[in-house]
């Protein structure tokens, strides 16, 4: 998960399944501005449609991306 932060911000990054249930927390905390790459270990997760949610507290922005995990 690539992310480019323009400003220092508090982030909450997590993975949600198609039913809206959170299945993995990727990162929760404060990050300074810059480029970041977060890894999702999906080795124990079954194939399906998932969503990556990125919440930025400072701007109150919510970014989400749909992903398809294929085994």
Offer a quick outline of the entry.
By secondary structure, the chain is an all-beta fold. The chain contains no helices and 6 strands.
Written account of the structure:
0% of the residues lie in helices and 63% in strands. The chain has no helices and 6 strands. The strands form 2 sheets. A 4-stranded antiparallel β-sheet has the order 3-2-5-6, with no helix packed on it. A two-stranded antiparallel ribbon has the order 1-4.
List the helices and strands and how they pair.
Elements: E1 2-5, E2 9-17, E3 22-31, E4 34-37, E5 48-56, E6 61-69
Antiparallel strand pairs: 1-4, 2-3, 2-5, 5-6
Brief descriptors of the model:
single chain; 71 residues; mainly beta; four-stranded antiparallel sheet; two-stranded antiparallel ribbon; 6 strands; 0% helix; elongated
Query: Number of helix segments?
Result: 0
- Biggest sheet statistics: 4 strands, antiparallel
What coarse outline follows from CA principal-axis ratios? elongated
Indicate the structural class: mainly beta
Strand order of the largest sheet: 3-2-5-6
As a percent range, the share of helical residues equals under 10%
List low-confidence stretches: none
Radius of gyration: 13 Å
């Amino acid at each position: 998960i690539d992310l480019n932060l323009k400003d220092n911000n508090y982030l909450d990054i997590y993975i949600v399944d198609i039913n809206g249930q959170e299945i993995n927390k990727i990162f929760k905390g404060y990050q300074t501005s810059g480029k970041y790459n977060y890894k999702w270990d999906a080795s124990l997760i079954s194939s399906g449609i998932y969503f990556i949610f990125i919440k930025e507290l400072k701007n109150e922005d919510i970014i989400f991306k749909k992903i398809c995990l294929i085994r």
